[in-house]
Amino acid sequence: MKSAITISLVEEARKGPFVYHDGLADGCARAAAAGFDAVEIFVPSFDPLPELAGLLEQHSLKLAAIGTGAGWVKHKLSLTDGDPDKRAKAIGYVKGVIDLAAEYGAPAIIGSMQGKSGEGTTHEQAIGYLKETLNALGPYAKEKGQPLFYEPLNRYETNLFNTLTEGVEVLESLATDNVKLLADLFHMNIEEADIAQAVLGAGTHVGHVHFVDSNRRAAGLGHMDHGPIVEALKAIGYDGYLCAEAFPLPDADTCAKTTIETIKKLV
Ligand code: LER
Ligand code: MN
Fold this sequence. Notes:
The protein has 267 residues and is of the alpha/beta class. It is 42% helix and 15% strand.
């Protein structure tokens, strides 16, 4: 398993659960200094990131993934919008991020952009739109040589799918095998009866992990027991990233240092 840490370039997400907020150069330098293998970036658009290749090379970092959440946070686009025009725009946005991430050998993440039902759609319609989208975007990402990550979110952020078990059911209902689950321990802490058991149940469907504590601070600064969770990840043969998607509390560097210490201790 490898380590990664989040950099947000989205002004509207300054208060969001991302560790670094002061640009790519600052985030990459601090991620490397803290000993991370990779960065995950939350981008404001799918415009090119001209400084990224040089920064990754300079700091011997990889790109772990790119988040599409600003499609919702900034542009109010949802993949399950009842309006076909807006849905098409949302799909176009995710395709743009898939293209951008693939340039650096990384996948894109669908989290907040999955939206929710009940705002112009029935539950069945919204789920139908989500599956349609994943069936279209899974193969699109495959053409670029990357999986696509789908992230179940807690009940306060979506009413579509909240647990890894539900996530597995969705994936197994798709025509594509190229969509993998993002297991975010913060969401799982709210929704799962047993986080380690949920990981074991999801098995090889797990493609990425947001590695964080119960209070969305760095792993090690809350009351989550990460030992059994990491053991479960080892048991399913997970060899992807443990990515710190956490609040920069008490400050970004302490958050980074604590995450790395927890990873070193357990992995
Ligand atoms: C949102 O709560 C989250 O966990 C992000 O990774 C998705 O945008
Ligand atoms: Mn997450």
